[in-house]
Amino acid sequence: MPSLNEIRSTFLGFFEKNGHRVVESSPLVPRNDPTLMFTNSGMVQFKNAFTGLETRDYNRATTAQKCVRAGGKHNDLDNVGYTARHHTFFEMLGNFSFGDYFKSEAIPYAWNLLTKEFGIPKEKLLVTVYHTDDDAAETWKKVAGLSDDRIIRIATNDNFWQMGPTGPCGPCTEIFFDHGEDIWGGPPGSADEDGDRFIEIWNIVFMQNEQFEDGSMRALDMQSIDTGMGLERIGALLQGKHDNYDTDLMRDLIEASANLSSNDPDGPGKVHHRVIADHLRSTSFLIADGVMPSNEGRGYVLRRIMRRAMRHVHMLGVQDPMMHRLVPELVSQMGAAYPELSRAQPLIQETLRSEETRFRQTLDRGLRLLDDELSRLPEGGNLPGETAFKLYDTYGFPLDLTQDALREKGRAVDIEGFDSAMAEQKAKARAAWAGSGETKDAAIWFDIAEQHGVTEFLGYDTEEAEGQI
Ligand code: ATP
Ligand code: MG
Ligand code: MG
Ligand code: MG
């Protein structure tokens, strides 16, 4: 049974053999790209190579790219712990052509790797194509001999890939694996497609357009290929598992979490362990790439992920900071593939330890307040926005942490109430400034804050957030 580390090597080796340059993962903080919060796919570092702004000394590349999807167009934070297939941090394996090969080669590459190199039975696979893309459908028929009912035409954005609100994009074809009738879920495009029976493993994008801010789109001068396959998803498959969290690497982290908390990895704390394992990876890799917890921008997204994880640690009944004690296990697994992780180990541990120590000073009291409020609410009632705001303002609970805590209890936050409590506090702050005799400076400050948005909230209103960083 191949390990994730082995699968990563096999993938890169396969494309290297086929004339692709093995390129290192780019950092999680995109270089010179104000439109994107974190690197969310393999194509990010090649964006300008697709649009023709930049030429490279190779026109075929392959990567294992670190990705974080915890904000912006692709946000999987709320899926973690609840689906078999989503992480906030994952590795995307990809092959790229910059104006070199196109559909008729990209499809056979993917098919051969999956069915020959990896030995996945053909009957378990099905594909989707963009509804107007007859070309892709024909190619699949020819290359894989798939019957028409296994080539599903999709008219939605699921088969038109975009990195964010702007940038290179195009129709895509995706490969799905059928995990069998025992698992709930329908094929792509059906009403039950959100289930976990049919798992999307690989997306092959035919890069041929560029989207602009004003909504217009142009055809790119050259036709390119951008693909992405989640290492953890193909790993689950090749390890005979259905669930990403049962792959070797994730499983070791879950067991470490269970050991440190003296809990059963598969007992009632199961979701907590999964969230902890996932969030440990995203926070550690973000810190290794230079993000530090703060109250604004990327740093606030990091802090939100950390604090969410810390609440889950608390829910396991652990009294002392625990996240930092899981770092050695992570580094021992991934430090060889990502040396920046090993280099940053002391910083990661210290940052996690001090954040958790600090947050623990208010976490317990905040959770008690929350429980108290809930016990007074009518059955199924939403948490008043004012309470969520108090938790945010006094106890350091990011809104999404409160929402995550409520979800286990089938409740939600009254968001309008939260927003108005926030607006009220801002108005008070403005009035206080105005009364302080520093009116002119204050007016300027508030104008700037309003023009650029309150940065603390980056990541809530995520579409807007992307544009603001
Ligand atoms: P899904 O529909 O399952 O959310 P996606 O369509 O959002 O996936 P893409 O943007 O097409 O995913 O990314 C390419 C590939 O990256 C996916 O086919 C999948 O293998 C992997 N992937 C995407 N999101 C995640 C995630 N949150 N965790 C792990 N792997 C992921
Ligand atoms: Mg998704
Ligand atoms: Mg999808
Ligand atoms: Mg997809």
From TrEMBL:
<protein>
    <recommendedName>
        <fullName>Alanine--tRNA ligase</fullName>
        <ecNumber>6.1.1.7</ecNumber>
    </recommendedName>
</protein>
<keyword id="KW-0820">tRNA-binding</keyword>
<keyword id="KW-0963">Cytoplasm</keyword>
<keyword id="KW-0547">Nucleotide-binding</keyword>
<dbReference type="GO" id="GO:0000049">
    <property type="term" value="F:tRNA binding"/>
</dbReference>
<dbReference type="GO" id="GO:0008270">
    <property type="term" value="F:zinc ion binding"/>
</dbReference>
<keyword id="KW-0436">Ligase</keyword>
<keyword id="KW-0862">Zinc</keyword>
<dbReference type="GO" id="GO:0005524">
    <property type="term" value="F:ATP binding"/>
</dbReference>
<dbReference type="GO" id="GO:0006419">
    <property type="term" value="P:alanyl-tRNA aminoacylation"/>
</dbReference>
<dbReference type="GO" id="GO:0004813">
    <property type="term" value="F:alanine-tRNA ligase activity"/>
</dbReference>
<feature type="domain" description="Alanyl-transfer RNA synthetases family profile">
    <location>
        <begin position="2"/>
        <end position="469"/>
    </location>
</feature>
<comment type="similarity">
    <text>Belongs to the class-II aminoacyl-tRNA synthetase family.</text>
</comment>
<keyword id="KW-0648">Protein biosynthesis</keyword>
<comment type="function">
    <text>Catalyzes the attachment of alanine to tRNA(Ala) in a two-step reaction: alanine is first activated by ATP to form Ala-AMP and then transferred to the acceptor end of tRNA(Ala). Also edits incorrectly charged Ser-tRNA(Ala) and Gly-tRNA(Ala) via its editing domain.</text>
</comment>
<dbReference type="GO" id="GO:0002161">
    <property type="term" value="F:aminoacyl-tRNA deacylase activity"/>
</dbReference>
<keyword id="KW-0694">RNA-binding</keyword>
<keyword id="KW-0030">Aminoacyl-tRNA synthetase</keyword>
<keyword id="KW-0479">Metal-binding</keyword>
<dbReference type="GO" id="GO:0005829">
    <property type="term" value="C:cytosol"/>
</dbReference>
<keyword id="KW-0067">ATP-binding</keyword>
<dbReference type="GO" id="GO:0045892">
    <property type="term" value="P:negative regulation of DNA-templated transcription"/>
</dbReference>
